[in-house]
Write a structure and sequence with these properties.
This protein is an alpha+beta fold and about 325 residues long. It folds into two domains: about 130 residues; about 180 residues, Nucleotide cyclase, GGDEF domain (Alpha-Beta Plaits), CATH 3.30.70.1230. Helices cover about 55% and strands about 20% of the residues. The strands form two sheets. Strands 4-5-3-6-7-9-8 form a seven-stranded mixed beta sheet. Strands 1-2 form a two-stranded antiparallel sheet. The two termini are about 45 Å apart. About 15% of the residues are buried.
C-alpha cells in the first residue's frame, strides 16, 4: 500500500511540475503575442521577429472563431487578443487545479505517514513480543534473606551484653520462617544459621514469597517487642533461566545485594525488575529505584513498594 501511495504522490508531483511549466510557457506566449499585437497596431516593427509564431496562432484561432475589432476606426484582427484572454483564463484554471492537486498531495503524504506509523507500530509490537519472550525465559526466582535480632534491654551506653541471646533468637526466627515456608508447596529452600535461600521454579508465584516475608516480619516484630527484642531483615531477589548455575551465578548476586544494607526491604537488580513488570497482577505496586551501586561493574538496585505505600508517596 505504501508503494502505491508513493507512486501516486510522485505522479502528483510530476503533474504539478507540468502545470507550473505550462503556466510559465503561457505567460511568455501571452507577453510575446500581446506585445506583437500592440506594436503591430501602432505600426512598429519592434516585435516583428514574433510574426511567424503569431500568424500560426492567428490561423489556429480562426479555425474556431474569427472576430475583428475596431481600433481608431480601423478593423483589426482580434484573434491574438482572444488567444491571450483565453490563455489568462487557462493560467487561472491551472492555478485552481494546482490547489486541488496540492490537497491530494497532502492526503497521500498523510497516508504514507500513517502507513509508516503502522509499519513501525507492528515492528515495535513484534519487537516487544520477542523481547517479552526473551525476558519470560527467566522463569525461575531465588530469594536470599537474613534476619538480625537486637536486644532492646541492653546497649553499650546503658550496660548489658548486647550479644546475649542474639544467636539463639536469630536461630529461632529462622526456624519459624522455615516453618512458614513449609506451608508453600511451590518453593524449596536451604537453611543457614541466620540466612535462608529460597528457590521458585515458577516466577509468577514470587508474590507469595514477598507477601510471606512482609507478614512474617510484621507479626514477629510485634511479638518480639513485648519481650524486649526487635527484628530486622535484609532480603534480595534474583531471576534466572534454565541452565543457570544458581550457586555459582545467582547466589553471588544475592549476596552482593545484601551488602547494600537496605534494612527491611526486598532489593533486586534491573533484570528482576523487568521480569516482574510482566506479571499481570501483583500484590506489590512496583519497583522503586534505590540507586546505582558498584556491583557487577555498576548496577541499578531496586526495591519493592507496596501499592498503598506507593499511593501515599504519589502527590
Amino acid at each position: 500500500m505504501i508503494y502505491i501511495h508513493k507512486t501516486l504522490l510522485n505522479l502528483l508531483k510530476l503533474i504539478i511540475n507540468i502545470m507550473f511549466l505550462a503556466q510559465i510557457v503561457l505567460i511568455i506566449v501571452i507577453f510575446i503575442t500581446a506585445a506583437y499585437w500592440f506594436f503591430d497596431i501602432i505600426g512598429s516593427s519592434l516585435f516583428s521577429f514574433a510574426q511567424p509564431f503569431a500568424e500560426r496562432i492567428i490561423d489556429f484561432v480562426k479555425l474556431f472563431y474569427k472576430r475583428d475589432i475596431i481600433v481608431g476606426g480601423v478593423y483589426v484582427d482580434g484573434s491574438l487578443l482572444l488567444f491571450d484572454i483565453l490563455s489568462l483564463i487557462a493560467i487561472f484554471l491551472i492555478a485552481k487545479m494546482k490547489y486541488y492537486v496540492y490537497i491530494a498531495q497532502d492526503f497521500f503524504v498523510n497516508q504514507i505517514a500513517k502507513c509508516k506509523q503502522k509499519i513501525e507500530d507492528n515492528f515495535n509490537a513484534q519487537l516487544k513480543k520477542d523481547y517479552n519472550a526473551v525476558i519470560k525465559k527467566y522463569s525461575h526466582a531465588a530469594v536470599l534473606i537474613t534476619f538480625v535480632a537486637k536486644n532492646l534491654n541492653a546497649d553499650r551506653f546503658w550496660g548489658g551484653d548486647t550479644k546475649t541471646g542474639v544467636s539463639d533468637t536469630e536461630k529461632y526466627v529462622v526456624e519459624s520462617f522455615c516453618h512458614a515456608l513449609n506451608m508453600l508447596d511451590y518453593v524449596t529452600y536451604k537453611k543457614g544459621i541466620t540466612k535462608v535461600a529460597i528457590y521458585l521454579q515458577d516466577f509468577d508465584k514470587i508474590d507469595g514469597i514477598l507477601t510471606l516475608i512482609e507478614n512474617f516480619h510484621k507479626n514477629h516484630v510485634s511479638a518480639m517487642r513485648k519481650n524486649g527484642w526487635t527484628l530486622d531483615y535484609y532480603c534480595s531477589a534474583a531471576t534466572y533461566a534454565d541452565g543457570t548455575s544458581v550457586e555459582l551465578e545467582i547466589m553471588p548476586k544475592l549476596e552482593s545485594l545484601l551488602g547494600t544494607k537496605q534494612r527491611n526491604e526486598i532489593v533486586c537488580f534491573g533484570d528482576f525488575n523487568l521480569r516482574y513488570s510482566l506479571n499481570p497482577e501483583s500484590a506489590f505496586y512496583g519497583m522503586q529505584l534505590k540507586g546505582s551501586y558498584e556491583l557487577d561493574g555498576g548496577s541499578d538496585v531496586y526495591s519493592f513498594v507496596k501499592k498503598n505505600e506507593a499511593q501515599k508517596q504519589t502527590p
